[in-house]
Each structure stands twice: as structure tokens, then as C-alpha cells.
Amino acid sequence: MTSSMLFNVVTLTYMVSMLIFFAFLATKNKTIGLTASCAAYFGFIVQTTAIILRWKESYEAGRGHAPLTNLYESVIFFSWTIILIYALIEIKYKYRVVGAFVVPFALLGMAWAQLGLESHIEPLVPALQSNWLLYHVITCFLGYAAFAVACGISIMYLIKDWLEGTSGDAQAGGIIAMFPSIKILDDLNYKAIMIGFPLLTLGIITGAAWANYAWGTYWSWDPKETWSLIVWFIYAAFLHARITRGWVGRRAAILSVVGFAATIFCYLGVNLFLSGLHSYGGGGK
Amino acid sequence: MTTNKRGFIQSVWDFFCSLKLSISLLILLAATSVIGTIIPQSPPREYLETISQAKIKLYSALGFFDMYHSWWFILLLYLLTVNLVACSVKRLPRVWKFISEPTLVFDAGLEKTLSLTHEFKMQGDAASLKEKMAAFLKGEFTAPVVTEVDGEYHLFAQKTPYCRLAVYVVHFSIIIIFIGALLGSFFGYKAYVQIAEGTSTSMVYKRGDEKPLDVGFSVKCEKFSVSFYDTGAPKEFKSILTILENGQPVPGYENRRVVVNSPLTYKGITFYQSSYGPAGDGAVYFLTVRDKKGGEPTKIVARKDEKIPLPGGGSVQVLEATEDVKPFLPQFSGPAIRMSYAPAKGEAQAVVLLRDYPDFDQQRGGDQVFVYTGANEKFYTGLQVAKDPGVWVVWSGCALMVLGIIIAFFFSHKRIWIRTGNGRVTIGGTASKNQPAFQLFFDGLADKLKKM
Ligand code: HEM
């Protein structure tokens, strides 16, 4: 059994979980809902096993590093953290249906990693040989995952808000009757961001500490750094907007979606579209 | 006139105290920061040649080529700071008063503002119920403060009131981080130095500054080495450094290993492994040559591009060398050289020699067989040099910020009031955070009271 085979099982499981979640939305049957989240948790356990297995494989290949060092590994870890944060929120607040809007993010990550990304275990270049890598990557991705969950919740909010607005009555029927109330969605959005914001803050700080330790500058306005700060500004604006009247609800939900779009750009867009120094080689003149 | 003036000052003050300004500034900072990630900062000439003169003029005028230090970006940061300070100056005294002088009397006005209240009928007069409720609160929540007003008793109890100060800790931490950054930019510097193996220097070069800076002690590079993985990717860049004071090694700072992610700090100045390259007059390569038919090999010592005559006529000239041949000849690995070999008779030809495969050259089938035994290549090590006395201020600010955010988000100021009259008990409560969780707790309290 290789980790790659297990990751395929994970992808399939998240796909099945998502489909059952959609069935749950359509039927409102509690058993189906329970099955959907059980499928997601089963996928999570397999994924955890597979990540540990890949870690072991890296030692067997003489590389010996945590599986957090290239795009393939980070996308898989991202999808793992999304399910983790979803589990926390589901267990604490008991809103299962949120899974229908969160599991697709995790599935998207897994499918992309398995179908489109290079999965070789590469040795660590000198710049990455540091424990700060672990602290930095774990805090950043847990933060990103919380924002992904907040984004899923905000999309639910916007759909519900829109449908209730157009149909005119406060309690529209159909699928969205399953959704938690507007007020609860707004609160859940805030709660997910309350988890994400301190984690992102820690992620930026550990990144700065690492940069300072590796090349003596804790902040150099490199595009990746700058984008993480942009994301931080957006969520800081969100937190303050909530204290101001008129910014709760729809505008907060929109800000949360914009925040997650910026998060994804920070994670993927910067590497794809902008030229940065986010690797060794910054030295010299 | 004076009222006008006061009105103006008041409106400036209100402007700087407003949360709308904070939100606008945060969004503006986020939006403008994007510019500097799209337009290269301190761009190289090659980039400037690809855009039009008009664009260059415009971008320079707007400071886009060094955006994060442009006057308008700095202005935004100052506005944020003023906003932060003004907001705190306005609110902190109120919050402090709120904590230190809580509302002890649970009157009708207060009751109306609370969303969680309950009223019960209970046996007993106001004074005996007060005793009972005080014991109840002490057991279930925390000991209350009792106030008597007109024959009724008002009990007030609160938990973690100080968590209301946490947001001010967060805001204060931002100012601390700014102070740390300013300290670093006024009293610190970033520089760069190249030191060839076996040499030492006390001069480093600040960025954008031609004149060298004397750090007051010398750094000697004893040795530099690079190692590679079997894939050809670099594994380690390593300098062995010794710090010298007046030409003498400093105890504890001799032969210190400096690699990426493991710098060396001496007297507040830190040296970071950053780059490397061939030093000065370059490497010396050691070869041997012997006749195909046998006989003793002759040793050759060659520098790059130097023409070395061979015994019996002809010459060799080392053209290039590599630490690892894998990228060129995937089936081999290890150091290699390529040289031009001009035999005594015939055409000059290119010959590749591999240090780790001494028999390699026999396959060529020439009259003379070469072996490459190794090189004594001299490197320089490139070190980033940084002095930043503000960095610990920055880290303190960061620690405060994380602590403050966690307290602000996950701790809640919970307040409970109870009023006892004759045969009647009223309870009310509120929490600063996570109202749903507090409601569960409050309903539990009310249930217990009901059963009393
Ligand atoms: C322009 C600068 C800023 C001003 C004027 C400002 C002002 C405020 C005010 C008035 C509050 C509400 C306090 C209360 O509930 O009594 C607040 C809350 C808060 N601020 Fe700021 N703030 C600024 C920037 C920031 C930044 C950059 C951060 C980033 C960490 C931040 C983090 C927070 C947090 C975490 C809260 C608590 C929010 C909550 O409890 O939901 N603030 N701020």
C-alpha cells in the first residue's frame, strides 16, 4: 500500500461524501446527513494515515522530511486542514449541512493534487531545512482552512439571503429550508474567522521569524509576504466591520468571500502570476 | 469664531476616532499593497527597457518602484497609527471605568437592556433571599457584591472583566511593532560581504552604498563547501568562519559552522549564508597523463585556460569544471573537467575527465591517457550581514499581539445580576463574547433557581 493509492481512496471518499451531502440537502433526511459526515470523517482518517505513510516513505527514500514541501503535498495538507476545521465546527455547533459547502473545497484540492500535480518526493534544498518550515506551514494552512470554511458558510448565507429576498417571505422553502438561519450563518462565519485570524497572524509571524533566521530580514515586501498581509488586512477590516452597524450580514459575508479569494491568490496566484523570491537564491547583490 | 474653531477640532477628532476610517484604511492598505506585487520593486534595467517612457515617468512620480516606502504609503500607515491611538484614547478610559466601577444596581433601566432575564416567586423576605442568592452565586458562578437600595438587595457578580482590555493590547502591539521597525531602520543596517577562503575582512557593503562599512572586527572564511543530493539539487552550503579581534581568534568564535538557516551572531551583528562563487585566481586542477602502452604517469598542475605542455609534445588546456557532471552526463556523477587536448600530431580535441571514474579516458582510445585526480578550487562565501537592534521589540509586539487576539476572541466578560425583594427574585445576565454559550449557562442557572 503506497500513500498515493490511499490518496486516491481519499479523493473518492470526499467525492462520495459530497454527493451524499447534496442528497441530504435535497431530502432533508437525517440519516443521510449522518452518512455524509461519516464519509467525510472516514476520508479524513484515511488521509491522516496516508500523510503519515508519505512521511515514512520520504525517510525510506533517504529524503527524511515532513510532507509539506511542495505544491502537491501542500494542497493535500490544505484539504486535510479544511476537513479538520469543518469537523471542529460541526462537533461544536452541530450544523451538519455546512459540510455541503465545505467538503467540495477539500475534494477540489485532492482531485487537483492527484490528477494534476507532480507527486515525487524531492529532497529539501538548504533554504527549507528548518523547523520553522513546519510551524509556518501548519499555522498558515490551518488559518487558510478556517477561511475556506468561513467562505463556504458565507456562500450559504448569500444564497439564502438572495432566495429569501426574491421570494419575498422570510422562510423560503425547498433546499434552503435546510440551511441554518441567516443569523446563525452570520455568527458561524464570524466564529470561523475568529479561528482563522489568530492562526494567520501566527503564520505571518512564524514566516517573518524564519526569514529573519534564514537571511536576516523579517520583512522584505516579497509578493508572497505582501499578499499574506493583504489577506490579514481584509480580515482585520472584517472584524472591525462587525462592530460597526450596517456591516453585519450581507456585507460581512461578501467580505469573507473576498478574503478567501485573496487567500487563494496568496497561496497559488502569487506563484503562478507574480515573480517572487519565495525560495533560496535571494542572496548576492 | 472660537466655537467654530472648537467645532473644527472636534470634527477632526471625531474623524480620527471613527471606526469607518479604520475600515477604510485597512481596505485601502490591502488594495494599494497589490500594486507593489505587480510592478517590480527597485526594478532592474532589463525590466525598464520593456515598458514605455511615459509609464516609467508616471510610475516614478507615484513612487510605484519603491511603493512600500513611498510618501503616500507611509502616510497611510501614519494615519492608521493616529486612528489607532485616537480610538484608544477615546475608548480606553470608558472601558476602564466600565471594569473598575461596574453597575452594581440592577434597576429597571438595566433590566430592559439585557436580553437574558428571569423572574421567580420564592419564599422568604428580601434579606434572607439575599443570603441564599449570594451563596448560590458563589457556588455556581463567583462571589457577588451586594448593594441595598430601598429595602431591595442587588447582587452583582462578574468573571474575567479584564479580557475587555485585550483589544487594546492588540492595538498597542501594532504600535510596538512599528517602533521596532523604526529602531531597526534608524540604528541597524543590511549589508553584504564576500570573503574568499583563507582570507578575512572587516569591511561590509551596505545595500546601495559604494563606501564599505567597518564592523570593528574581522571575519575569516576558513573554508566553504557545497554538497549535492544524488538528484543534483544542492544539499548544503557551508562556511566555516572565525571571528578575529586584532588579528586574534575570539574564543568560542573559532571555526563556527554557518549554513543556510543557521547564522552566526557576534556583537549584535549577524552573518547569514547567502551565496558563493569561485574566488579570485580560481582553482588549481590536478591531472596525470601516461602513455597508452604503459609507463609511469606524469603529474600535471593546471589553472583554468592555462596551456600546459605535455611530455613528448602537445598541450592541454582546462576549459571548464563542474562539481557535479550529472546535468551534462546523466549516467555519471561527481566532479568533472572539460579540456582541450592538442596532441603532438593531429587535431586538437575536447576531452572530458571524471574524477570518480579514473578509467573513463581509456575508452577514448587515444595515445595518451589522462586521469583527473581532483581540484583545489578556492571559493568565496557570500554572507548577508544584518544589524537590527529593533528586532526584539518587533518580536515582543508580535507575542503581545497573538496573546491579545486569543484573549479578545476566546475569553468573555460575563456579568450576572440578581435582585431580591420580598418573595421575589430577578436574575439577569450578559456576556461580551459567545452569547449562545452564555445563554445555555444562564438557562441552566435559571433552572436551578426554579427548583430551589
Ligand atoms: C486604524 C486602526 C484601528 C483602529 C482605530 C481600531 C479600533 C478598534 C476598535 C474601536 C475596536 C473595538 C473595541 C471594542 O469592542 O470595544 C477594535 C477591535 C479589534 N481590533 Fe482594532 N482597530 C484598528 C486596527 C486594528 C488592526 C490592524 C488589527 C489587527 C490585528 C486590529 C485588531 C482588532 C481586534 C482583534 C479587535 C477585536 C474584534 C472583535 O472582538 O471581534 N485592529 N479595533
Name a few traits of the molecule.
heterodimer, A: 285 residues, mainly alpha, 8 helices, 75% helix, flat, disordered C terminus, B: 452 residues, alpha+beta, five-stranded antiparallel β-sheet, 10 helices, 21 strands, binds protoporphyrin IX containing FE
How would you describe what is shown here?
The complex is a heterodimer of chains A (285) and B (452). By secondary structure, chain A is mainly α. Helices cover 75% and strands 0% of the residues of chain A. Chain A has helices at residues 3-27, 30-60, 71-93, 99-116, 131-167, 182-215, 223-243, 250-273. In chain A, helix 2 (30-60) packs antiparallel against helix 3 and helix 3 (71-93) packs antiparallel against helix 4. Chain A is flat. Chain A starts with a helix and ends in a 12-residue tail after the last helix. Chain B has 452 residues and is α+β, with helices and mostly antiparallel strands. Chain B is 35% helix and 35% strand. Chain B contains ten helices and 21 strands. Chain B has helices spanning 2-17, 19-38, 45-48, 53-62, 71-100, 108-113, 126-140, 166-187, 391-410, 435-451; strands at 116-121, 145-149, 152-159, 189-196, 200-206, 212-228, 234-245, 248-249, 256-259, 264-266, 269-278, 284-291, 294-303, 307-309, 315-322, 336-342, 349-354, 368-376, 379-387, 414-421, 424-431. In chain B, strands 4, 5, 6, 7, 8, 9, 10, 11 and 19 form a nine-stranded antiparallel β-sheet that branches. In chain B, strands 1-21-20-3-2 form a five-stranded antiparallel β-sheet. A four-stranded antiparallel β-sheet of chain B has the order 14-15-16-17, with no helix packed on it. In chain B, helix 2 (19-38) runs antiparallel to helix 5 and helix 5 (71-100) runs antiparallel to helix 8 (166-187). The longest helix of chain B has 30 residues, at 71-100. The model of chain B has no long low-confidence stretch (mean pLDDT 89). Chains A and B meet through helix 6 and helix 7 of A and helix 2, strand 7, strand 11, strand 19 and helix 9 of B. The complex binds protoporphyrin IX containing FE.
